[in-house]
Specification:
By secondary structure, the protein is mostly helical. It has four helices and no strands. Helix 2 crosses helix 4.
């Protein structure tokens, strides 16, 4: 995937769903960035791998629940953003 396509996808996802915004948790620690969440999601979709396998690949120590939530929200966002193109 080209860099410009990846950045375009992350921009759309980041603008549409607040979940993908890079923010701090309640104790001030930065969470996962939009790029990390989208990269993990695209790897899951492209290669059919589970969230645990992505920990070492992407260098994240988050739980599998994060990957499942990222995947669910990513797919929902893509559908919401692009459904008008396919329902006409």
């Amino acid at each position: 995937m080209s860099r410009s396509l990846f950045l375009g996808i992350t921009n759309v996802v980041d603008d549409h769903d607040n979940y993908f915004v890079h923010k701090r948790n309640t104790i001030g620690i930065l969470g996962l960035s939009c790029h990390q969440k989208v990269t993990a999601t695209i790897c899951q979709l492209a290669y059919g791998i589970v969230g645990d396998a992505l920990d070492e690949y992407i260098g994240l120590g988050e739980s599998t629940a994060i990957y499942i939530e990222s995947l669910r929200r990513f797919v929902k966002t893509v559908i919401e953003v692009s459904e008008h193109e396919f329902t006409q």
